[in-house]
Amino acid sequence: MIDGWRLAIGTLTALPVRPPVRVTRRSAGQAMLSAPLAVVPLAAVAALVTWTGSTAGLGPWVCVVLALGAVQLLSRGLHLDGLADTADGLAASYDRERALDVMRRGDVGPAGVAAVGFVVLAQVAAGAQLLAAASETTGAALIGVCVVLSRVSVAVGCVRGIPTARSSGLGATVAGTVPRLPLVVELLLLTSLAALVVRTLNGTPWWSAPAATVAVLVVTAVLLGRCVRRLGGVTGDVLGAVVEVSLAAALVTVAATS
User: SS3 for 168?
Assistant: First the structure.
């Protein structure tokens, strides 16, 4: 369990932590299940930055840019990199090996630039709408909740039955390591807790949290399905892509239901 926790924090955040002693299929599965909990410090920072900026008189767009920028800083921009590489790979060719080769490269093509631009813009615009319609505390808390909910997509992407696209790399290490029953339990508990938090906020219906979870699951399923068909499975880049798309979906959904 300790190795799984260390792997989750070390992989999904830039927070200092000792490396795991040994990475096994079991510890990898525990790490991916722990993804929402591992990013709670990042969500707290995002909420704090949002609240501080709002109370200081900064506009909603500026506050959200600073908050989500802090999240990217504390995750090393890893997920945005995965989004760009995945978009380039899917747009490159219908040949599986060529698409995977494009994803291995360090450069970013037009599809990757467009994907990052549209997804980040959706995140910021939805977050700004939240802040404009809610109090400083409520808006900040909702952004933090969305950051946590978006990381459920990591566990979904590693559930048993979804293959890996490569024989090596992060995707090969974690693909298919998450048992289905613990994932279902985690989804129910996390959604219930998020709904409880949202219920205490003024002007926000409690069902915003379950709606955001459903949105995360839908966009994750669509993107994973596309990647499995085109690439043969998931990679570390694909997991990063589902995180960013899921965050956008969660923010848009909460903004639309608030």
Answer: coil
- Is 187 within the bounds of a domain? yes
Question: What average pLDDT score do residues 46-56 get?
Answer: 95
DSSP 64-127: HHHHHHHHHHHTTTHHHHHHHHHHHHHHH-S-HHHHHHHHHSSS--HHHHHHHHHHHHHHHHHH
The mean per-residue pLDDT over the stretch 33-61 comes to 94
Residue partners of 8: CB distance under 8 A and separation at least 6: 30, 31, 32, 34, 35, 37, 38
Rounded Cα–Cα distance for residues 208 and 28 (Å): 31
CB 216 within 8 A of CB 191: no
Provide the domain limits for residue 111: 39-257
User: Do the domain assignments include residue 78?
Assistant: yes
pTM over 0.90: yes
* 65: in domain: yes
Examine residue 247 and state whether it is found in any structural domain, yes or no: yes
Cα dist from 29 to 5, 84, 177, whole Å: 10, 25, 4
pLDDT by residue (tens digit) across 149-190?
999 999 999 999 999 988 777 778 888 889 999 999 999 999
